[in-house]
């Protein structure tokens, strides 16, 4: 059976590391910065990108590469690079094709850290970003494209609002304007959604979340489908389509074809900026990936029960979970994620902000943590925690209702989760 045709469950367990005769069955941790060669010429060929091989872990490491290969196969991509965090992944995904003077468009309901990266930090680098409401009609959003626009960005399921992104619609829109669509697929994971099948060109991940699933490492990934035709828009993407003087005049699209984007990301951005994961972290991530398919199914099953319970609860003002028939994202979720979306639910209690805080303080094993999307059920009130510097008005602009509670449903027994929520609400 060809590797491309394997099912996600098999890839989760078997993908990536391919031991040769007599080698370790379990992915080894190559905790080494450097690799040895017999001749100076062997090493020179690596630097010239004439030969493949390892020489320095900032550029490539066998443990990291094996895990990247697994994620690449899970997404159905052509090339994948691991990063030291999800933030680094989103930064590199954009910075690989944008430079000072360029512009890109993003959905406005994205994770707060990404919002700040795009709106504040990248602006300091001379890269401008326009935030659009994905619920605006095409005509209104398309007015935001400029001659120097280089990509469109969105999250499959937004954090923390749980909105579902219409991947196919925005892929077509981006392509009408000659730019790729980049989707952060952290919450859905490739077990539930494979954005490349809907025309998306590049996928990013915070592997810190479900992919790891046990909150043991911070990491990220950028995966390229290899499908975007950079040469057809060569004027927009000179970094890929014209000679790179820092690599002896090599042109990435000509030298690497469908792997041009991922090769450039490693040989320029990793070389110059770093942000690789420690091999030890990739090892931990790989253990998480081996059960991703089992955990995602259980997260979705538990979250569906909890969302239905919340919806029927008189103390609850509103619930947003795309698995609920009442959700305005239900149809999109059925289209893109028929197996289920994820374990994260956004809801509001009837009452004040203080009531929301009292409810959370009264929870027992459902803990208050900044983290989201792991095996343990956890909860956060963005207005009091991650977004506490924002006024109510600014919160709404960022797509975060002031009363929004983000509940990340874990894989415990769902009756116990419901009992904990119920007790805390009653108090
Ligand atoms: N993307 C999404 C959707 C996230 O939820 C997060 C973090 O919560 C990130 C990116 C950033 O990832 P990391 O915390 O691994 O840097």
Describe this structure in words.
The chain is of the alpha/beta class. The chain has 17 helices and twelve strands. The chain has helices spanning 8-14, 40-47, 62-75, 86-95, 112-124, 138-142, 167-176, 189-192, 238-241, 252-256, 260-273, 279-289, 292-311, 330-336, 353-361, 392-397, 414-426, and strands at 79-83, 103-107, 128-132, 149-155, 181-184, 202-206, 220-224, 316-320, 344-349, 367-368, 378-380, 405-408. The strands form two sheets. The protein has a seven-stranded mixed sheet with strand order 1-7-6-5-4-2-3, with helices on both faces. Helix 5 (112-124) links the parallel strand 2 (103-107) and strand 3 (128-132). Helix 1 (8-14) packs antiparallel against helix 3 (62-75), helix 3 packs parallel to helix 12 (279-289) and helix 15 crosses helix 17 (414-426). The protein is globular and about 70 Å long. The model has no long low-confidence stretch (mean pLDDT 95). The protein binds pyridoxal-5'-phosphate. Residues 85-87, 90, 111, 113-114, 155, 159, 184, 186, 206, 208, 218, 220, 372 line the site of pyridoxal-5'-phosphate (PLP). Pyridoxal-5'-phosphate binds at residues 85-87, 90, 111, 113-114, 155, 159, 184, 186, 206, 208, 218, 220, 372.
Keywords:
427 residues; alpha/beta; 7-stranded mixed β-sheet; 5-stranded mixed β-sheet; 17 helices; 12 strands
